[in-house]
Amino acid sequence: MITVENLSKTFPGADEPVRALHDVSIDVGAGSLFGVVGPSGSGKSTLARCVALQERPDRGVVRFDGLNTGSLDGRRLREARRQLGVLPQRAELHGERTVAGNVAAPLELLGLDGPQRRRKVGTLLDLVGLTRRAGQHPADLTPGQRRRIAVARALATGPSVLLADDPTAGVEPEESGAVLAVLDRARAELGVTVLVTTPDAAVARKLCDDIALLEQGSLVESGNVLSLLSDPASRTAQALLPAIETTRTQAAAYDRTADVVLIGFATVGALLPEATTRFGIELATIGGGLTRVGDTPVARFRLGLRGERADAALAWIAERGGHVTQQGLGPQGIAAA
Ligand SMILES: Nc1ncnc2c1ncn2[C@@H]1O[C@H](COP(=O)(O)OP(=O)(O)OP(=O)(O)O)[C@@H](O)[C@H]1O
């Protein structure tokens, strides 16, 4: 759907040029929820603005369904922009208009008549869960509710892509889940492809199918979130998986230790107890924990194992989809090292 190929962008800086993007390539599939994640200044907004066709890259290409947007002239560029709904980082609502009026504003520009507008606004307010607020003004809403209205407004013209630049910025943590849920609904119910930028790995963990990590304008890694978690050495795994905090004393109580990443209901729930009985070993989780990536449960545990068939049990767990790493020996191994 959206392909970004070798994008580079440099801005003039006070002392020297600022390299905002350097040779960044991403592939955003139709209907996916794609997260661009990185610290402040890593180039996320610049990438979003290039994809929104608001900024021209110095080098590289942004393609929509294969079409090179860099080659489009004025009229065709405007047509391409109409496919895009943009939620800027500081989306301003019209303070003097009602919530419904704010969502209706882009439809008025399109020239939709009253009944059509009302129907469309009703559907969008329902999508963002704020139907009962239709007659209120933005000042009466919380920052999270205002952000949800801005999402409804960005979706009003029926874009096929929604670009949301840091959608939870300035939103209280207890409200950010509702903002993310609205983006998820936009994808599920309207079939919109959603590209989100965020400095918050937890946003990507809760929302995104695919992810690109940026650092100082360069792409560190990208791909399907669950696939990246299968490689515990990946930066995505380090950012999203539960931390392992185990003392040497805890580890020393076992013959060997191993770290394991388990993905999915069946794997998380059943694999470890079954390995224990099948191989007649003692197996305990001595670190790590359980989280969720979207709706999928994902665990990273440090295991302590005791028993002759511990190695065979680990091999069996790995064969059944557990990602086993960092196998270490117990007290004897540590003493010898
Ligand atoms: N119009 C501009 N003129 C000059 N420098 C710019 C401009 N836009 C961005 N930059 C610089 O480019 C770099 C990347 O900025 P960008 O806003 O894309 O990062 P970001 O990851 O979105 O950061 P944040 O999360 O803080 O919004 C930064 O060093 C920034 O100061």
Automatic annotation (TrEMBL):
**Sorted alphabetically, which InterPro entries does this protein's record hold?**
AAA+_ATPase (IPR003593), ABC_transporter-like_ATP-bd (IPR003439), ABC_transpr_LolD-like (IPR015854), NIL_domain (IPR018449), P-loop_NTPase (IPR027417)
Q: List residues traversing the bilayer.
A: none
Q: Where does this protein have coiled-coil stretches? A: none
Q: Give this protein's Gene Ontology molecular function annotations.
A: ATP binding; ATP hydrolysis activity; transmembrane transporter activity
Q: In its UniProt entry, what is this protein called?
A: D-methionine transport system ATP-binding protein
In terms of SUPFAM superfamilies, this protein maps to: P-loop containing nucleoside triphosphate hydrolases
* Gene Ontology CC annotation, any one: plasma membrane
Spell out the Pfam families in the cross-references: ABC_tran, NIL
- Per its UniProt record, what SMART domains does this chain match? AAA, NIL
Q: Which domain of life is it from?
A: Bacteria
User: What UniProt keywords are attached to this protein's entry?
Assistant: Amino-acid transport, ATP-binding, Nucleotide-binding, Transport
Q: Where in this chain does the record put each ABC transporter domain?
A: 2-241
The biological process GO terms on file are: amino acid transport
Q: What are the leading ranks of the lineage?
A: Bacteria, Bacillati, Actinomycetota, Actinomycetes, Pseudonocardiales
